[in-house]
């Protein structure tokens, strides 16, 4: 029988003489069982390769084995954070837990939900995050007149929608605040408009200097031709028709639906004088073309005057 573990046999004196033995050790594959094998250079993976010893087989060739090294995250042997996604379960229904098989560490994707303090699509608010809103940013329409709330409490309910415990001005709240059997503007002579927050009839006080302030004119430049991205230039003229100089006045322009607000610095206005101020509200944000309301308030610590004007945003 021929022995394949040797090279070609020869005959000497009618006898077979074995050839040189075949060395298959060059085809052996060393086994690997460690957390620190290169080239993956990841101490959290168990690096494993099966040991293989080559043998000589017919017709005098060496068997070959696999050099493949398997790298797998291993919690027990290599102190990995995870081996599979379930190892990362944080018992939170608002997260997606994933085991990163490259780093053997847990990764978490946080899903938006009502109660996460972030205002997500479809939410007006979230817990204590009211998106900067107060009752003064909301209004009702009474007899085709926009009337803003003047005080009250704005909160966020469990559905992430506003709960408005907001109060309209006395001259628009449907209550006989001064008990004269006359309710609101225009029925109650104590009301100058729906925006008046004092329903009580004004009593003449001739001995007390009067403080009066009239908004004579409001102009909005290009009020019918404004577009998204334009600046809004508002020109306001005030007249002091009272008996005393007015101190520390300011004018504030607010467009609640667009989140735009700007005011002048403080200024004085002598009696029987008028003054004109300009307010520039910069860069109309993205919005739907249509008619919008701007609220102009002239005030100091003693008196307040509010005027509303409308303007159009076109395409």
Characterise the protein shown here.
1% of the residues lie in helices and 36% in strands. With 315 residues, the protein is an all-beta fold. The protein is rod-shaped and about 150 Å long. The model has no long low-confidence stretch (mean pLDDT 90).
Please describe the biggest sheet, giving its number of strands, its sense, and whether it closes into a barrel. 5 strands, antiparallel
Give the strand content: 35-45%
Provide a count of the helices.
1
In the CATH hierarchy, the third-tier topology of one domain is known as Immunoglobulin-like
Number of strands: 21
**Chain-averaged pLDDT:** 90
Query: What is the C-alpha radius of gyration, as a whole number of Å?
Result: 42 Å
What is the subunit arrangement here? Answer: single chain
CATH superfamily (homologous) name of one domain: Immunoglobulins
Q: Cα distance, first to last residue?
A: 99 Å
- CATH architectural category of one domain: Sandwich
Enumerate the spans where pLDDT stays under 50 for 5 or more consecutive residues: none
Q: What is the level 1 CATH name of one domain?
A: Mainly Beta
* Class computed from helices, strands and strand pairing: mainly beta
Order of helices and strands: EEEEEEEHEEEEEEEEEEEEEE
Question: How helical, in percent, are the residues?
Answer: under 10%
- The geometry reads as rod-shaped
Quick take:
The chain has 315 residues and is an all-beta fold. It has one helix and 21 strands.
Which structural traits does this protein have?
Immunoglobulin-like, 21 strands, five-stranded antiparallel β-sheet, 315 residues, mainly beta
């Amino acid at each position: 029988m021929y022995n394949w573990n040797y090279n070609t046999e020869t005959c000497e004196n009618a006898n077979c003489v074995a050839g040189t033995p075949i060395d298959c050790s060059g085809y052996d594959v060393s086994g690997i069982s460690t957390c620190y094998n290169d080239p993956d250079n990841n101490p959290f993976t168990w690096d494993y390769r099966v040991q293989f010893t080559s043998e000589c087989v017919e017709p005098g060739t060496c068997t070959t084995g696999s050099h493949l090294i398997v790298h797998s995250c291993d919690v027990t042997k290599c102190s990995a954070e995870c081996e599979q996604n379930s190892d990362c379960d944080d018992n939170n229904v608002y997260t997606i837990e994933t085991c990163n098989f490259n780093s053997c560490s847990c990764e978490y994707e946080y899903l938006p939900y009502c109660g996460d303090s972030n205002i997500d699509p479809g939410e007006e608010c979230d817990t204590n995050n009211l998106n900067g809103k107060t009752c003064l940013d909301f209004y009702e329409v009474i007899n085709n007149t926009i009337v803003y709330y003047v005080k009250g409490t704005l909160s966020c309910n469990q559905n992430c929608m506003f709960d408005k415990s907001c109060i309209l001005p006395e001259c628009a709240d449907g209550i006989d605040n001064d008990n004269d059997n006359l309710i609101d503007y225009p029925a109650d002579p104590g009301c100058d408009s729906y925006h008046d927050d004092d329903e009580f009839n004004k009593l003449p006080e001739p001995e007390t200097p009067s403080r009066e302030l009239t908004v004579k004119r409001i102009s909005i430049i290009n009020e019918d031709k404004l577009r998204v991205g334009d600046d809004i230039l508002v020109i306001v003229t005030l007249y002091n028709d009272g008996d005393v100089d007015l101190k520390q006045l300011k004018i504030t322009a607010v467009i609640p639906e667009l989140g735009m607000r700007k005011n002048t610095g403080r200024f004085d206005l002598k009696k029987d004088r008028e003054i004109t101020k300009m307010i520039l509200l910069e860069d109309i944000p993205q919005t739907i073309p249509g008619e919008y309301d701007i609220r102009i308030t002239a005030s100091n610590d003693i008196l307040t005057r509010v005027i509303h004007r409308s303007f159009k945003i076109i395409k």
